[in-house]
Design a protein that fits this description.
- The protein is an alpha/beta fold.
- It is built from four helices and three strands.
- It has a three-stranded parallel beta sheet.
- Helix 4 links the parallel strand 2 and strand 3.
- The longest helix is centred in the first third of the chain and has 15 residues.
Length: 86
């Protein structure tokens, strides 16, 4: 038995548009960590760059992987602990 996963970028775009309609004036952040769980972060980012308000990733490596594929701000979710004073 062969398993196959098909990703329809048009459906992803429609889902985002539906969420944005429900948000009204809110902003939509596309979380694209872990290479979109193996689906291809670069390809998905390019497909939704015109409708996402910004992107979020979990590591600096992921930030550098997508930064040339998007025109929107990227939120880094990993804390940076250098030079913190309390």
């Amino acid at each position: 038995m062969k398993n196959e996963l098909k990703i329809d970028l048009n459906i992803i775009r429609e889902n985002i548009k539906n969420y944005k309609d429900k948000l009204g004036k809110g902003k939509f952040c596309a979380v694209v960590k872990a290479d979109c769980y193996g689906l291809g972060a670069k390809k998905i980012c390019e497909a939704i760059d015109d409708i996402a308000d910004y992107f979020a990733v979990s590591s600096r490596r992921e930030l550098f992987e997508i930064k040339r594929h998007v025109s929107k701000p990227i939120l880094l979710l990993t804390p940076i602990y250098k030079n913190i004073t309390i």
